[in-house]
UniProtKB/TrEMBL annotation:
GO cellular component, one term: extracellular region
Keyword Nucleotide-binding: no
Originating organism: Hypholoma sublateritium (strain FD-334 SS-4)
Alphabetical list of PANTHER family matching this protein: CELL WALL SERINE-THREONINE-RICH GALACTOMANNOPROTEIN MP1 (AFU_ORTHOLOGUE AFUA_4G03240) (PTHR38123), HYDROPHOBIC SURFACE BINDING PROTEIN (PTHR38123:SF1)
Name of protein: Hydrophobic surface binding protein
Length: 183
């Protein structure tokens, strides 16, 4: 019985130690997170593109919301992993920058598309969808900002200006979309 108790106490201690100790992430994990974010952005853009300008359905609108929530989750995970990774080399920073830069046009397309479809969302028989989209846009902008800030904080000094410009361009694309759903 004493053997079982001491083994249990040891396992409990080891488990609590591993939970309390932050795990350093790797650049490969950050790159995988960016790939997940890219996939989530593409899915969201595809759903927005497929949503009709008139005669849309509640299910279609909710699918867009679900995709936005998935993207938000991916951004939260990515931000955590970037923060845990710490500073990166110039080569890794360049790879990360290029991966994020490749996503930017799709983000712009999705945001332009969501503005174009506003009247279709507003015409749905159940109200509140435009308010839900505004909430999603606001959360997406906030989490995109956090992710970008984490990347910039860990970027090599030689890439900070480029990273900051990319961040500002992406965030600027949110302005007309949020304005459209705020009125």
């Amino acid at each position: 019985m004493v053997q079982i108790k001491s083994t249990f106490v040891f396992l409990l201690f080891a488990t609590s130690l591993s939970v309390a100790t932050p795990h350093k992430r790797t650049v490969a994990k950050v790159e995988a997170d960016i790939a997940t974010i890219s996939s989530s952005v593409k899915n969201l853009d595809d759903l927005i593109t497929a949503y009709p300008a008139t005669g849309g359905t509640l299910l279609g609108a909710l699918n867009i919301h679900t995709a936005a929530v998935s993207l938000i989750s991916s951004l939260v995970t990515g931000t955590s992993d970037v923060t845990s990774t710490g500073p990166v080399s110039v080569a890794d920073g360049t790879t990360i920058f290029n991966a994020v830069q490749a996503i930017a046009p799709t983000i712009g397309d999705a945001l332009t598309g969501i503005v174009a479809k506003k009247s279709s969302f507003a015409a749905l028989p159940i109200g509140g969808i435009p308010a839900l989209i505004l909430q999603d846009l606001t959360l997406l902008r906030g989490n995109t900002t956090a992710f970008s800030n984490a990347l910039i904080a860990n970027a090599p000094e030689s890439l900070v200006a480029e990273d900051t410009t990319l961040k500002n361009n992406i965030l600027a694309a949110f302005v007309p979309a949020i304005a459209a759903y705020s009125s």
